[in-house]
Amino acid sequence: MTAPVVRGEPPQDALPTLAELVDRVLAGPDPAPIVQPGHPVLRRPALRYDGQLADATFSALVELMRRTMHAAPGVGLAAPQIGIPLALAVVEDPGALDAELAAVRERPRLPFRVLVNPSYEAVGPARVSFYEGCLSVRGWQAVVARPRTIRLTGEDETGRTLDEVLVGWPARIVQHETDHLHGTLYVDRAEPRSLATADGVGGSLAGEPTPTTAARLLGFDLA
């Protein structure tokens, strides 16, 4: 074992601006690498987007996030997940192919959309529990109880105001991605005893329409 290397903090003027950071990411691998737990960007509130980027740069960033989400593959991606501390996310879900899953999880197709400075609040008291995974917590899944219905506010990529109500799986996706913009990972909200790998027995439990069997076998309560 060697002694840790101690280095001083870099001078403030050495830190890249948001625009410089985005340019670096755009010039890097495509799809972009997805950061994993331990990266500070996942634990810090993202910057509100107020036009800090040129229109062409912003559009290029959105398209890179879209390609990265598809390649992963995933149904949502927030800018901090590719190392950019900006309140921006993209979502898209083809929906559940299995009819029972689609009905139980209320998982219709969610067309591609961009969320800028999104925020949400619960509508009504109903909460539902399902397994979730995350591209930034690779290889694991856990049960998360979330509001079934939410009110989403924010803007889209054109600056148009968003103010709408979402139900079921689309609401879950939006909550998950918006949480990223506040430095929150799904594991922070998860039932600890439900944590399971994404394959083997854990994958089988998570693949059931509801986590009822997992709750019984692993010993936790559902919302």
UniProtKB/TrEMBL annotation:
One of the protein's GO biological processes: translation
Active-site residues from the entry: 177
**Molecular function in Gene Ontology:** metal ion binding; peptide deformylase activity
Pfam families given in the database record = Pep_deformylase (PF01327)
Q: Which SUPFAM superfamilies match?
A: Peptide deformylase (SSF56420)
Q: Which cofactor does it need?
A: Fe(2+)
Q: Would the keyword Metal-binding turn up in this protein's UniProt record?
A: yes
Going by the record, the broad EC class of this enzyme is hydrolase
Biological function = Removes the formyl group from the N-terminal Met of newly synthesized proteins. Requires at least a dipeptide for an efficient rate of reaction. N-terminal L-methionine is a prerequisite for activity but the enzyme has broad specificity at other positions.
State the similarity comment: Belongs to the polypeptide deformylase family.
* UniProt-listed PANTHER family: PEPTIDE DEFORMYLASE, PEPTIDE DEFORMYLASE, MITOCHONDRIAL
Q: What is this protein's name?
A: Peptide deformylase
Q: Which organism was this protein described from?
A: Cellulomonas fimi
The organism's lineage is: Bacteria, Bacillati, Actinomycetota, Actinomycetes, Micrococcales
